[in-house]
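Open question from group meeting: does this chain pack into something compact, or does most of it stay loose? Before anyone orders reagents, we agreed to write out a predicted structure and look at it together. Recording both the input and the output here so the notebook holds the full record.
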Amino acid sequence: MGISLSMDNSERKNMSVKIVSVEKELPDYSSETKDILPFVEDWLGKQDDRFRRKVLKIFEGADVDKRYSIMDPKEVFTASSFEQKNNIYVREVKKLGKNVLQKALKSMEWNATSIDFIITVSCTGIMIPSLDAYLINSLEMRKDITRLPVTEMGCAAGISGIIYAANFLKANPGKRAAVIAVESPTSTFQLDDFSMANMVSAAIFGDGAACVLLSSEDQAQGPRIVGEEMYHFYEATHLMGFDLTNHGLKMILNEAVPQTIATHFPEIVHPFLQKLDSNIERLNHLIFHPGGKKIVQTVEDLFGNLGKNIDETREVLRKYGNMSSVTVLYVLEEFIKKQPKTGEQGLMLSFGPGFSAQRILLEW
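Structure tokens returned:
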């Protein structure tokens, strides 16, 4: 017999999906921006003085104090092949993914075999089989586990992974899911690319990993996913992404991104909240992806006009840089640690290639 479509609110909450844990893992290498500047100066040694000064100002003004990397800075700024960089990516992604998943499982005292659905998220390297296959082997997860790699959604994919997990769990009460995001934008850095897109991305990006555990079990504790939705921009595929070249993944980052977000902002936020019987005044927390200084400033201005702030987003950008899909999960972890009051709501929001916006409404 099917489930009635006319469930009341109490029945919906009894079948709800909750985020029960968020953990992060960082690579071995880290550098403050001031320590990277000498490498940048050497790299740009043959460029004209005006261009070199401009790039150094981009690094200094990126609002990123520190970032982590799977490679030593010397290695990052040393010429190597796409194959060599990607091999490092594969090796380190496996390690970071395993460590962060184990950390999350330990925090909940869950056995690896209790996970029903595993989603791995990454766009900064190429590996087939995808990370989830290696994690299943390494942690001896169940042979009948359902796996889904999310590989080409960029900065939006952390929320995308949670959306996919939430939909699986809504259809399967009493189950568990793990979303593991691991990114290394460092692996995509192009030494021979002197475009502004490469300069800006080099100035803001860093590497990292995160794991989100979700559950549709009755006893699960954590913020409830009230609703989730994607928003797709027409005629905007050129705004963000990668070109695959003989030297690796070449960054595409159009300067029109902040204005495009600002133009669509009312359509992205208000109808979504309205569908879920909420509104901007009801929101207590804004869990926004730190895409970079200009995007953060654009969204901060828009939310600021509505009486909100994204202080946690700025802080994550300052401490870690933009780690692509991983970054919004670090912001989420900050809110989870603060233990918001019962009934408070938070809006998760990120943007990525497509061009698209991903949204999740949480309630504690």
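Observations to bring back to the group:
Residues 121 and 150 are 5 Å apart (CA to CA).
The chain has two domains: 14-215, 222-363.
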